[in-house]
Amino acid sequence: MTEYFLLIISAIFVNNILLAQYLGNCPFLGCSRNIGTAAGMGAAVVFVVVMASGFTWAIQRYVLVPFSLDYLQTIVFILVIAALVQFVEMFLKKAAPPLYKSLGIFLPLITTNCAVLGIAIICQRKDYGIVKTLVFSFASALGFMLALLLMAAIRERFELSRLPQSMKGAPAGLVMAGLMSLAFFAFKGMIS
Amino acid sequence: MVTSSILVLLGLGFLSAVILGVASKLLYVKEDPKIAEVEEALLGANCGGCGYPGCSGAAAAVVAGKAGCDVCVAGGQEIAERVARVMGQTVSYREPQVAVPGCSGGDRATALYRYEGAMDCRAQALLAGGGKKCGLGCLGLGTCVRVCPFGAIHMGPKGVPVVSPELCRACGKCADACPRGVIAVLGMTARLLHLNQTDDCLAPCRQKCPAQIDIPRYIQNIKRGDFAAAVQTIKERNPLLLVCGRVCPHPCESVCRRGAIDEPVAINPLKRYVADWEMNSGTRLPVALAPDTGKRAAIVGGGPAGLSCAYFLRRLGHHPVIFEAMPELGGQLRYGIPEYRLPNKVLDWEIEGILRLGVDVRKNARFGRDFTLESLEAEGFDTIFLGLGAWQGSNLRCENEEAKGVLSGTEFLTAVGMGAKVELGEHVIVVGGGNTAIDAARTARRLGSKVTLMYRRTREEMPANAIEIIGAEEEGVEFLFLAGQTRVITDASGQTTHLEYITMKLGEPDASGRRRPEPIEGSETRIRADNILAAIGQKPDLSCLYEEGGECRLEQTRWKTIVADPVTLQTILPHVFTGGDVFTGPDIAVSAIGQGRRAARFMHEYMTSGEIRPPERLQREMIPDTLFSTLDGYPELPRVKIPEVCAEDRLCGFEEVELTISGEEAKRESCRCLNCGSLCHGEEPEFVMIEDDAA
Ligand SMILES: Cc1cc2nc3c(=O)[nH]c(=O)nc-3n(C[C@H](O)[C@H](O)[C@H](O)COP(=O)(O)OP(=O)(O)OC[C@H]3O[C@@H](n4cnc5c(N)ncnc54)[C@H](O)[C@@H]3O)c2cc1C
């Protein structure tokens, strides 16, 4: 049990996919203008990451390894994830229209989110079993969502304050991301 | 290895493609082509004003039947019609709405400080409550300008937003964004329904006016020379502007801030000027009406309260029917107030304007005799308004008061008002100190009698309007102050010859704050009197409410007025409302008019939603912070003089005594108005915008 607890804590805080591993910076900056959007994006990422990790785990285990094709991992994963997201989108539209509506335009955007690929690959590198893979990817995605929400909250306050023209928008966002990352640095070493 | 990888990738790609292809076939969701069509018809602004996620969301909602054709708040009637065409429906009339900034700037705009440099109204409001002197007004940082998707708002020279009505689509984003609630999207209905609230920006005159007329606005309209706009501004609160322009004792002027500099602005003469301007222009300005609701209301009593109630109900789209006991409408305006103050042809013109909007009238129909609450209910009226006025004159309250030659002042005035020939003797004594007494005295004077007005207190305590007292004096009415009637003396035939009275002195102030008159024993005196007119108060005549069995379903007070909620004017019967003199006891016309609108407001709510919710924070008393006793820095400007017919000419008949001012004078007078807000003045040294150095 403690093992899983530590796994979750480390995935959310210590090794936060965004702030400690610097993956998925594109939506981090692009979708953090207001909390509503950030929450939508976060939810979509959680959903897709868990699906993708599970799926890629199966591909790796039953296709790539048996045929000793692991060197194709990256490219195959990209392909699989892209196709998966498409499929999920269609499926949701048919089967769960409300969920589809709320995840809305974020789903296709995720295809290009490297955090999804990153998490899938990390799971492989660490040689996790299927349960661990799912737990880890879920927690990592939560970590992503947390960072995104924090960022959005900060940026909402930013909107209202007086910034030098040259710092408005992305520059301030990047500086914020850096500072947040430093803050998350404090978790380093908490779990070895 | 290369071939195998290529093969694997190709295979995987192919597999995905097949799966996706099959999936898209299997999972195909049929989208109604109408959605696309509707979306096409919509504006495409994606403003979100409708509450759906963008125009496509709105289109889907329309096709799903969740939203009507008028879903697009930004598009207005034209878009609604386009959508309706796609959907094969027709649109009903949509009330045009527009954003209205409720702050005129003034000195509230000077920044006290700038909190941490926040350049956004919301941030300011969050951080410091807004660093401006006035707690109600615009913060002036232009958040509404930035959120407007249609570029309809810009910052005016006074540092407050200015809306371009032709661009405004009434999407409501500005109202949502404004932390102070200064800007609101309002249509006519909302404006007609609004009651003064303590968090509105209210000049003292607006607080005092019983009809809550937006006085500074109509004066600004006059200043710009836009008399039609001034008339419309007044008509949103008071349909009887010709009447009030003539007879209103203008409580508003008593609190006018200009009074702290020199003299109050001539608010009422300005009203009269624009009202006369409309009448003399020969055409009636069109009055906008809300779409028909199909609801019917019975208005009992065609005095100012009933007329005002009917007018507002009609403008809100209902169908009022006025039931009037007398042969003509107008109540005390016609049968009390004499011709020389309010000519009948003026009153007729004004009432006709109200009736033309679609108000039905049944004259010579007396409540309690010709119809009852039950018969009105049976006839299918959704609500009933009782505006019966206060028509029962009091007796003389002294010995032998039944003697021949003693009349009640109101009866006398009504008889004259109805054109009956009233014969008065040479010496007429009018007893009383109110408007009825003065009107009776001046009317009797015009009929050729020598008139003495007898009053228990002194001139200072007379409740009548000062200008009326002066008028009476000029026309030769004698005054006998500190005199209380004790006995009517008659000759052998029972005809009045003298009135005996006792001299009074003023004692301690009583509950009403006026000093109580006390008789001086042994000072009885006689004065010649062929006729005595008693004008010492009226009360409502509620006998009509008691149906055959004598049981009344309504409650009444000690003063014979109808019991009702002071705010909503709803009686103990939920569908019956009241207002005017029958609710307050004898009062003034504007109060009756204001209550007519208030009753109409709640009747509207009752008829449309079935329940009544009085708004919060209603302004009832004067807001203390808004009353200033001194005001520096303004030059004195003389108040306009109201022309009058000179006293000798007046006695020849019932020609109107007060005349109207000229257009030039009206414009000059309007410039005396300081355009007050709650705390500030629109007429203020120029406001300087603070430059945003960061931008
Ligand atoms: C002599 C006099 C002078 C005044 N001067 C001024 C002035 O200068 N300025 C000012 O502001 N105010 C003045 N007032 C007061 C003002 O006229 C009243 O406050 C105002 O008219 C009240 O309006 P109302 O609609 O409540 O009642 P009313 O005007 O009295 O109207 C009531 C209506 O109900 C009708 N009615 C009564 N009983 C029945 C029934 N059983 N069935 C059907 N219909 C019925 C009456 O015929 C009348 O038309 C004066 C009043 C008087 C008497």
Describe what this molecule looks like in 3D.
- The complex is a heterodimer of chains A (192) and B (695).
- With 192 residues, chain A is an all-alpha fold.
- Chain A has one domain.
- Chain A contains 9 helices and no strands.
- In chain A, α3 crosses α4 and α4 crosses α7.
- The longest helix of chain A has 30 residues.
- Chain A starts with a helix and ends in a 7-residue tail after the last helix.
- Chain B is an alpha/beta fold.
- Among the domains of chain B are: 63 residues, Electron transport complex subunit B, putative Fe-S cluster (3-methyladenine DNA Glycosylase II, Chain A, domain 3, Orthogonal Bundle), CATH 1.10.15.40; 231 residues, 3-Layer(bba) Sandwich (FAD/NAD(P)-binding domain); 148 residues, 3-Layer(bba) Sandwich (FAD/NAD(P)-binding domain), CATH 3.50.50.
- A 5-stranded parallel β-sheet of chain B has the order 7-6-5-8-20. A 5-stranded parallel β-sheet of chain B has the order 10-18-11-12-13. In chain B, strands 14, 15, 16 and 17 form a 4-stranded antiparallel β-sheet that branches.
- The longest helix of chain B has 25 residues.
- Chain B is elongated.
- Chain B starts with a helix and ends in a 25-residue tail after the last helix.
- The C terminus of chain B is likely disordered.
- The interface between A and B is medium-sized, with 26 and 26 residues.
- The site of flavin-adenine dinucleotide has 40 residues of chain B, from α15, α16, α19, α20 and α22.
- Flavin-adenine dinucleotide (FAD) binds next to α15, α16, α19, α20 and α22 of chain B.
